[in-house]
From TrEMBL:
Top enzyme category: oxidoreductase
Matches recorded under InterPro entries: Haem_peroxidase (IPR002016), Haem_peroxidase_sf (IPR010255), Peroxidase_pln (IPR000823), Peroxidases_heam-ligand_BS (IPR019793)
One matching Pfam family: peroxidase
Cofactor names: Ca(2+); heme b
Protein name: peroxidase
GO BP annotations, alphabetical order: response to oxidative stress
Domain Plant heme peroxidase family profile: 1-139
Length: 139
């Protein structure tokens, strides 16, 4: 579990297109238009960037306000209901992963250490994996 939570912290970097999170801000389910785990002001901000009839193909937003810095802001945003992806917000749904989110949110050093260890473990997996130059495409 720690590897999953630590490696998810890679979402502290980069940009996400609207198509990757629009299901959380438009027609979420039969009873909620917006994912109720999202902070309302954050959801409104995302809706302004990604309207339901979005015509801008490259519309989207940074993964977090410090998206060019490898830090632990990602975890603090999850706690605040400001994560872009449902998979990120889901880290608060089990006691073990929630505990790790809080641990990494409160200690950049703990996050960096766990991330490095998890990357080392992942690098030793055999089976023809590749590091993608662009996450959306196989090299």
């Amino acid at each position: 579990m720690e590897d999953l939570v630590a490696l998810s912290g890679g979402h502290t970097l980069g940009f996400s297109h609207c198509s990757s999170f629009q299901n959380r801000i438009h027609n979420f389910n039969s009873t909620h238009d917006v994912d109720p785990t999202l902070r309302p002001a954050f959801a409104a901000s995302l809706k302004s960037i990604c309207p339901i009839k979005n015509k801008a193909k490259n519309a989207g937003t940074s993964m977090d306000p410090s998206s060019t810095t490898f830090d632990n802001t990602y975890y603090r945003l999850i706690i605040q209901g400001q994560s872009l992806f449902s998979s990120d917000q889901a880290l608060l749904t089990t006691p073990k992963t929630k505990s790790l989110v809080y641990k990494f949110a409160s200690s950049k050093k703990a996050f960096h250490t766990a991330f490095a260890e998890s990357m080392m473990k992942m690098s030793s997996i055999n089976g023809g994996q590749e590091v993608r130059k662009d996450c959306r495409f196989v090299n």
